[in-house]
Automatic annotation (TrEMBL):
Domain (YjeF N-terminal) ranges: 9-207
Species assigned in the record: Martelella mangrovi
Protein name: Bifunctional NAD(P)H-hydrate repair enzyme
Ligand binding (K(+)): 57, 117, 153
Record GO terms (molecular function): NAD(P)HX epimerase activity
Cofactor annotation remark: Binds 1 potassium ion per subunit.
Chemical reaction(s) catalysed: (6S)-NADPHX + ADP = AMP + phosphate + NADPH + H(+); (6R)-NADPHX = (6S)-NADPHX; (6S)-NADHX + ADP = AMP + phosphate + NADH + H(+); (6R)-NADHX = (6S)-NADHX
CDD domains: YXKO-related
PROSITE patterns, per database record: YJEF_C_2 (PS01050), YJEF_C_3 (PS51383), YJEF_N (PS51385)
Lineage per the UniProt record: Bacteria, Pseudomonadati, Pseudomonadota, Alphaproteobacteria, Hyphomicrobiales
Subunit structure: Homotetramer.
Length: 488
């Protein structure tokens, strides 16, 4: 599912106009979609209170207001700025709307009203003024239902960030394609239910207008998921190696290993320091074990080319050992998580040097803190949204970056970006990140390319959590992974 940034939507708009499509006709359809949503969702509203801004978002508002009046709904319009200065389609929409409007400072709460927020959409450029924020706060505090046109005003369509303040909509009607800001946080939490309405811009124009951002759905990775056939045997299904920490820190890697096996790797081996072998062995059944205490033992093990992917980081310990192990592993498909990432905090360039110059085959899975350790300058940039941060990091590291959180973003060095929006909050539980690393490792082991494996991993992780339900522990997750053949 392709998402368009506000800039790309602007391109689509321009290309549509160039191809002879009547832009005022698009605005009429947009406004009518908003009025239809109002009538469908709030048939008993005492009044439609329409806030109209100074651009085309306001234009959609005037069209919706006129349509609601024609349907018999009492309507009050409050405009921002000088409506005489409206230009283009928005000007025409105001002229065609026979309702007197008043300046926004005249607005007072009205019992039973429903607000249509048509202040700003794609054209939001800067934080909302204090006066506007006060009005938004009054509407929010009074729990007045809000329908947002395109985006809740104040939410950045590219980043999902709130600029100053923003409406909390019950429902948002956007046009042709959702925008990244509808799915990134905190924007997602301001949208309410999201409706993507087709106002008639042709697909070929939308395809030409943009295409880097995707919502993470199976359509993005399904074709690359490993498929079982009669000729499958365990070595054909890949062999995943997962590195464990010492005797008191084997749990995290065991979670990854089990998840890798459930994700379909034919064999999974836990590589343990010798002093942890006994502890680990008492907890393993289908997962195998191999003592690997130092880099010499690792290099011996790596001579087995059937080992097709690795996970390093969960519970491994931070320090020199992790760095030398990564040096030995850097040319092979690898998920680098947790301590594996933190070990390079003092010398991120060393890691990027190891990963440079090849087809990207490493997946980095930082949470916010780990991301800041590896990419401190990128992380500090307040105006970058999460996709831009992940994307810059991916290019710098020549690795797929899966930037975790409630709105996990997956970015490839070639510019592809996926936003994962389905994970439930009960995934925030100890060890769930270890399971995610293992799922991705299991998919890499079966030959899935790094971006698709990371995107599939994040989606499967969220899907398993939704199946397991609230109250899950990380151990529950692997058992709830869906059958790949059942994913649609
Ligand atoms: N794409 C399509 O095909 C279609 C798009 N359609 C609709 O068009 C919308 C995009 O319209 P748009 O480009 O005119 O931008 P919009 O959101 O109205 O805002 C721009 C105005 O706001 C102002 N402004 C900005 N920030 C501000 C602030 N913080 N505080 C105060 N002012 C601020 C800014 O002023 P300036 O920065 O120039 O001073 C400018 O005047 C889109 O969201 C959708 O609803 C539909 O009609 C159907 C077809
Ligand atoms: N509020 C949330 N909603 C959805 N997913 C979340 C939320 N908080 C965390 N997650 C997910 O849970 C996992 C936690 O991973 P991580 O932070 O590494 O924890 P741990 O180290 O305990 O395994 C990540 O996949 C993250 O995306
Ligand atoms: K809006």
């Amino acid at each position: 599912m392709l998402l368009l940034t506000p800039e790309e939507m602007g391109n689509a708009d321009r290309l549509a106009a160039e191809s002879g499509i009547d832009s005022y006709g698009l605005m009429i359809k947009a406004g009518h979609a908003v009025s239809a949503a109002f009538l469908r969702l709030f048939p008993g509203a005492s009044r439609a209170t329409v806030f109209c801004g100074p651009g085309n978002n306001g234009g959609d508002g005037y069209v919706a207001a006129e349509a609601l009046k024609a349907a018999g709904v009492p309507v009050a319009i409050f405009h921002l700025g000088d409506p005489e200065k409206l230009a283009g389609d928005a000007r025409r929409a105001r002229i065609d709307c026979a309702i007197e409007s008043r300046p926004i400072p005249d607005y007072r709460l009205y019992p039973g009203e429903v607000v249509i927020d048509a202040l700003f959409g794609a054209g939001l450029q800067r934080p909302l003024s204090d006066n506007l924020c006060e009005i938004i706060e009054a509407v929010t505090d009074a729990a007045v239902p809000v329908i947002a046109v395109d985006l809740p005003s104040g939410v950045g369509g590219l980043t999902g960030q709130v600029l100053g303040g923003a409406f909390r909509a019950a429902h948002t009607v956007t046009f042709m394609r959702a925008k990244p800001g509808h799915y990134l946080l905190p924007g997602r939490a301001h949208c309410g239910s999201l409706e993507v309405f087709d106002i008639g811009i042709p697909q070929r124009i939308l395809a030409e207008a943009g295409g880097a951002h995707h919502l993470n759905t199976p359509a993005l990775f399904k074709a690359s998921l490993p498929a079982l056939s009669a000729s499958s045997h365990k070595f054909r299904r890949g062999h995943l190696g997962v590195f464990s920490g010492g005797p008191s820190a084997t749990g995290a890697a065991r979670l990854s290993a089990m998840a890798g096996l459930r994700a379909g790797a034919g064999l999974v081996t836990l590589a343990v320091p010798s002093n942890a072998a006994l502890v680990a062995a008492t907890h393993l059944t289908a997962v195998m074990m191999k003592p690997v205490s130092d880099v010499a033992a690792l290099e011996d093990w790596l001579a087995d080319k059937r080992l097709s992917a690795f996970v390093l980081g969960p519970g491994f310990g931070v320090g020199e050992k992790a760095r030398t192990f990564v040096e030995a592993l850097a040319a092979r498909p690898l998920v680098l998580d947790a301590d594996g990432i933190t070990s390079f905090a003092e010398a991120p360039e060393q890691l990027f040097g190891l990963l440079a110059g090849t087809e990207p085959h490493c997946v980095l899975t930082p949470h916010e803190g780990e991301f800041a350790r590896l990419f401190p300058d990128i992380s500090k940039h307040d105006t970058f949204g999460k996709p831009e941060k992940a994307s810059r990091a991916a290019r710098r590291a020549n690795a797929v970056v899966l930037y975790k959180g409630a709105d996990t973003v997956i970015a490839a060095p070639d510019g592809r970006i996926a936003i994962n929006a389905d994970a439930p909050p009960w995934l925030a539980t100890a060890g769930s990140g270890d399971v995610l690393a293992g799922i991705i490792g299991g998919l890499l082991a079966q030959g899935m390319p790094a971006f698709e494996a990371a995107a599939a991993g994040a989606w499967l992780h969220g899907d398993a959590a939704n199946r397991a339900g609230e109250g899950l522990t990380a151990e529950d997750l692997p058992g709830h992974l869906p059958r790949f053949s059942a994913i649609s």
